[in-house]
Write a structure and sequence with these properties.
- With 420 residues, this protein is of the alpha/beta class.
- The chain has eleven helices and 17 strands.
- Helix 5 packs parallel to helix 8.
- The radius of gyration is 38 Å and the shape is elongated.
- The N and C termini lie far apart (94 Å).
């Protein structure tokens, strides 16, 4: 206790400074999390009567509910989510309704709403009008956020009014900015095929409002060409997109429930996941949370290339990478070398760095190659490992005798040159 009192008396200023720094570090640590703004995502999904059709021992609607539930369970707080279904509560061709406003912590509400939604038998597919309405929805067009729409449909843009003799009402056409309002021709009584590009108009309006729209087709009854063009207009075409193709090339096509889940997962991963650098400089991923970016989720190992060009892995341990696992393929795995440099010569005659096997090296050059092959660039190998004392002694004697002979010859040559 006396020593501590003396220390305080001698260095009061230093100790106070250290205590202040420690207190600052303790109180400031929660704020060290880097701030982030979660993106906003609005699911705009088809709730038409055809979604009640069966697919792989379930219905397309149940498959949709499961896919949304799965992806939101994976990224529950990584974005602010909302839900729009179409048609709206009026059924038939009513424009879609926003069922759950975009906000933090809405994942469970969205899943619950989808699970309890009633789909009437006459529910049609006003997809284009619903996308157009979404383009005016303030919570998904706020420039303070990165905004996205995930649009899913299982069929054609469709409405059936006036026994198929009219495509849309005047108000629909006004919403879409289309004039004059089109009509269906008599030989197309079961759908308004004259408005197939209306989803393209909706996606274009969303893009103009700063919203990226990802397009997902579900089942085998979708208008492939129209969805290709919708994804292209939305600014989210897949690689190799051909907007005029009659096969899926620009959007995510799912023909079974597992593929629908995979499509949603791929889309959300693009939207909510950011690349980051973890321990040992290994690249990982992170997502935005209510408390800021979460910890960088990086793998413990990374790929590497050994000194002789072979692929391997290196593992991060205590913030340092281990040697590349494939380094063993490069040789030089013998005992620790001694004070002298050790060089081996391979069959091609090129020197390479390596340790001579066995005990400590002494700077003697080892020759590697086939010991039975005379006349090659490297035809002998001198072993200097443990248990080779006799070989060492013989080499030393030979070298010693050679040195004596050289000195003797030099002396003789000197005498002859200086004799009268």
């Amino acid at each position: 206790m006396r020593a501590r009192s003396s220390l305080h008396a001698a260095f009061p200023t230093a100790i106070s400074a250290i205590a202040a720094i420690a207190a600052l570090a303790t109180t400031a640590s929660p704020a060290l999390a880097e701030d982030c703004t979660p993106p906003r995502v609005l699911f705009v999904v088809d709730a038409s009567a055809s979604m009640l059709q069966g697919i792989e021992n379930t219905t397309k609607w149940e498959a949709l509910v499961g896919a949304v539930e799965g992806v939101l369970a994976t990224y529950p707080d990584a974005a602010q989510y909302g839900l729009m279904t179409f048609p709206g509560s009026g059924g038939k061709c009513a424009i879609g309704d926003v069922n759950i406003d975009v906000a933090p912590g809405t994942a469970s509400q969205i899943v619950s709403k989808l699970g309890t939604l009633t789909i009437p038998a006459d529910a049609a597919t006003p997809a284009g009008q619903s996308l157009m309405k979404a383009s005016t929805y303030g919570l998904i067009t706020d420039p303070g956020y990165a905004n996205y729409v995930v649009f899913m449909t299982d069929g054609y843009q469709y409405c059936y009014l006036n026994n198929g003799t009219a495509c849309m009402t005047t108000s629909d056409c006004a919403l879409m900015g289309v004039s004059p309002c089109p009509t269906c021709i008599p030989d197309q009584p079961d759908g308004c095929y004259c408005i197939q590009k209306w989803p393209v108009l909706g996606a274009t309006a969303l893009a103009n409002a700063g919203v990226q729209t990802f397009v997902v087709g579900f089942g085998d009854k979708v208008n492939v060409k129209a969805l290709n063009q919708t994804a292209d207009a939305a600014g989210t075409p897949l690689p190799g997109c051909d907007p005029n193709a009659n096969t899926p090339s620009c959007y995510y096509q799912a023909t079974k429930p597992a593929e629908l889940t995979a499509a949603f997962s791929t889309i959300l991963q693009q939207v909510v996941v950011e690349k980051c650098v973890g321990a040992c400089g290994i690249e990982g991923e992170r997502t935005c949370t209510v408390n800021g970016w979460d910890v960088c989720d990086a793998p413990a190992s990374t790929s590497c290339v050994s000194s002789c060009g072979t692929d391997g892995t290196a593992t991060c341990i205590d913030d340092a990478l281990t040697p590349c696992s494939s380094e063993v393929d490069c040789g030089g795995q013998g005992g620790q070398g001694g004070a002298g440099p050790v060089t081996s010569v391979g069959a091609g005659g090129e020197p390479s760095s390596g340790a001579v096997g066995g005990g400590g090296g002494t700077g003697i050059t080892g020759i590697s190659g086939d010991p039975e092959e005379d006349g090659a660039c490297a035809c002998r190998t001198t072993a200097l490992g443990a248990g080779k004392d006799d070989a060492r002694l013989g080499v030393a004697l030979v070298l010693g005798m050679a040195a004596l002979l050289r000195r003797r010859r030099s002396a003789i040559g000197y005498s002859k040159s200086t004799s009268p």
